[in-house]
Design a protein that fits this description.
The protein is 4% helix and 28% strand. It is globular and about 50 Å long. The protein contains one helix and 15 strands; from the N terminus they run ββββββββββββαβββ. With 203 residues, the chain is mostly beta strands. The chain has an eight-stranded mixed beta sheet with strand order 5-6-8-10-12-13-14-15, with no helix packed on it.
Length: 203
C-alpha cells in the first residue's frame, strides 16, 4: 500500500523498467524530494498503479519514459520539475490516466511524444511552464475533451508565443481539444482560443 524512499543525505536514484508496474494497491508513494534526485526513470516504471492518487516529479532530473504512468487510473495531479533537463515526455507516458485533472509541464520540455496524454478524459487544466517550441507527436491529447483552462506561464509568455510555440505545433485533430478553452498568460491577461484558430481577449 505504501512506499517510502528516504535518506539522510543527498543521493541520485534510478528507477528501473517496470519497477512498480502492476502494483494495483499502491496508494501512497513518498520520495524525499529535498534529498533524492531521480536520474533515470525506466519504461512502464509505474504503469497500472491503479490506486496511486498523485505523483510529485519535482525531483525528476531526466526525461519521462514511454508508458511510465500508463493506466494509473486514480492519478489526479502531476507536478513537474522546472529543470531544463526534463526535455521529453514519452509515448503514452500518461495514457488512460482517466482521473487526471491537472498537469504541469516543466520549463525544459520541448518534445511530447505520441499519445502521451491520450484518453486522459478528465484533464481540465494545463500549466505550461516550457519556454521552448514544443514538438508534438500524433494524438498527444486524444479524447481530452475536458480541457478548459491553460496557464501559459513562462515569464515572456504572450499570445504570439502561445500560437507559434504550442498551438500551431499540435498535430491533426489535437487542436480541437483546445478550442473554447481559456488561455491565461503570465501577466494575468486571458484569451479565448477560438474555433478558427485565433485568440480573442476575454473581458
Amino acid at each position: 500500500k505504501k512506499v517510502l524512499i528516504n535518506t539522510n543525505s543527498s543521493i541520485n536514484l534510478s528507477i528501473g523498467e517496470r519497477a512498480f508496474e502492476g502494483c494495483y494497491s499502491l496508494d501512497d508513494l513518498f520520495i524525499n524530494v529535498a534529498l533524492i534526485t531521480i536520474k533515470s526513470l525506466g519504461a512502464r516504471a509505474f504503469a497500472e498503479c491503479r490506486s496511486l492518487p498523485y505523483i510529485d516529479l519535482r525531483n525528476l532530473d531526466c526525461d519521462i519514459s514511454d508508458n511510465a504512468f500508463r493506466e494509473c487510473t486514480s492519478l489526479q495531479y502531476v507536478y513537474m520539475n522546472t529543470s531544463a533537463n526534463i526535455t521529453s515526455i514519452g509515448e503514452e507516458a500518461f495514457a488512460y490516466c482517466t482521473s487526471l485533472s491537472y498537469v504541469e509541464i516543466g520549463a525544459g520540455v520541448n518534445n511530447i511524444k505520441n499519445r502521451a496524454f491520450s484518453n486522459c478524459v478528465g484533464i481540465k487544466t494545463l500549466n505550461i511552464k516550457s519556454t521552448a517550441s514544443i514538438t508534438f507527436g500524433e494524438d498527444v491529447f486524444e479524447n481530452c475533451h475536458s480541457i478548459n483552462k491553460i496557464y501559459y506561464s513562462s515569464a515572456s509568455a504572450n499570445a504570439s508565443e502561445w500560437t507559434s510555440k504550442f498551438y500551431d505545433n499540435l498535430q491533426g485533430y489535437d487542436k480541437n481539444y483546445f478550442k473554447g478553452a481559456t488561455i491565461v498568460f503570465s501577466d494575468g491577461v486571458a484569451y479565448l482560443q477560438k474555433y478558427d484558430g485565433t485568440l480573442a481577449p476575454q473581458a
